[in-house]
Design goal:
Structural class: alpha/beta
Bound molecules: nicotinamide-adenine-dinucleotide, FE2/S2 (inorganic) cluster
Distance between the termini: 39 Å
Shape: globular
CATH superfamily of the largest domain: Nucleotide-binding domain of ferredoxin-NADP reductase (FNR) module
Number of domains: 2
CATH architecture of the largest domain: 3-Layer(aba) Sandwich
Strand content: 25-35%
Strand order of the largest sheet: 6-1-2-5-4-3-7
CATH class of the largest domain: Alpha Beta
CATH topology of the largest domain: Rossmann fold
Number of strands: 16
Number of helices: 11
Low-confidence stretches: 1-19, 296-305
Radius of gyration: 19 Å
Mean pLDDT: 87
Largest sheet: 7 strands, antiparallel
Order of helices and strands: HEEHEEEHEEEHEHEEHEHEEEHEHHH
Length: 305
């Protein structure tokens, strides 16, 4: 385990930078009421980042380590884009920061990139905030010369994100909403089923979104024998294969999402175990969110300006 972790260490860029030894937020954009885009100045990470990989950030020395899949990068500007949903203690605190503020750590790129080689026709399926991760992967397939269909799904029109960006990197883009308030009505799996039944052939499907969505995408593609990759988001701690926190069962074997993934063959993933493990700290998180007074709003924020 440790050896495996050590094998990826040379790829990491954990040196702190900027005048305050921290990472500057150079752009912030609210994509919808709960989803925020931030561009972070992190040239060493930007230099090596590829679609499908992730970073781990820490807001300050006391902060928890939070993994986020890379939503984009600009090697010339030396920036990495992250898109996150403000759901937990740390993502809410991050969302309270603004352009010009700094965060303490930004480690990456971690994990393996999206596998694009040999894929000529692909369908990328994104659900909700998972679309932020699906976008760079769709772009990577396009850049590698594949024909790219994209299916994106949202609960309703108000939370649709990245529509134009997906159109720009796909041959066909299908937008679904659960309530039919925009695009077509239905889950992403409804459209995927239609496409497969109509005779569409794909070398691979890549699904990124909530766990039930990824599970049902796999159930949809299984009868058609289409290889289906899913991007897993288990609890992570070190992100380098040493703690075992991100273990998932794939094809009966234990894998570490941080170094073996995060993308895996979805037909072999034990989704029930993943769901159960991801719920481990739900009560504790709710408790912390209910009782915590955010340091970033007051004194803490003034200190890192
Ligand atoms: P959501 O619940 O609003 O679902 C988004 C879309 O996914 C829906 O509109 C629907 O089209 C599809 N979907 C959902 N459940 C489905 C089902 N049972 N069958 C078929 N399709 C289904 O998504 P959200 O609230 O934006 O997502 C939040 C969740 O996504 C969080 O749990 C978060 O952890 C997870 N997430 C995962 C990743 C990842 O890397 N896999 C990345 C970001 C977020
Ligand atoms: Fe620790 Fe993967 S082994 S996060």
């Amino acid at each position: 385990m440790t050896l495996y972790g050590l094998s990826v260490l040379p790829q990491l860029f954990i040196l702190k930078r900027t005048d305050q030894n921290m990472y500057k937020i150079v752009r912030k954009k609210e994509l919808n009421a709960s989803v925020t885009l931030m561009e972070i100045e992190a040239p060493f990470v930007a230099k090596k980042a590829q679609a499908g990989q992730f970073i781990i950030f820490r807001i300050d020395e006391m902060g928890e380590r939070v993994p986020l899949t890379i939503a984009g990068y600009d090697r010339e500007k030396g920036t990495v884009t992250i898109i996150f949903q403000k759901v937990g203690f740390s993502t809410i605190a991050l969302g309270n920061l603004n352009e010009g503020d700094y965060i303490r750590d930004f480690v990456g790129p971690l994990g393996k990139p999206t596998h694009t080689e040999g894929v000529k026709r692909v369908c990328v399926v994104g659900g909700g905030v998972g679309c932020a991760i699906a976008l760079p992967s769709a772009a990577a397939f396009k850049e590698a010369g594949a024909e790219v269909d994209v299916i994106v799904g949202f609960r309703n029109k108000d939370i649709v994100i990245l529509e134009d960006e997906f159109k720009a990197v796909s041959d066909n883009m299908y937008l679904m909403t659960d309530d039919g308030s925009y695009g077509e009505q239905g889950f992403v799996t409804v459209k995927l089923q239609q496409l497969l039944e109509s005779g569409k052939e794909y070398d691979a499907v890549l699904a990124i979104g909530p766990i039930p969505m990824m599970k049902f995408v796999c159930k949809t593609t299984e009868p058609f024998g289409v290889k289906t990759m899913v991007s897993l988001n288990p609890i992570m701690i070190d992100g380098t294969g040493m703690c075992g926190g991100c273990r998932v069962t794939v094809g009966g074997e234990t894998k570490f999402a941080c170094v073996d993934g995060p993308e895996f063959d979805g037909h072999k993933v034990d989704f029930a175990e993943l769901m159960s493990r991801n719920g481990t700290y739900r009560d504790r998180e709710a408790e912390v969110n209910a009782t915590h007074t955010c340091r970033m709003d007051a004194m803490g924020k003034a200190l890192i300006k």
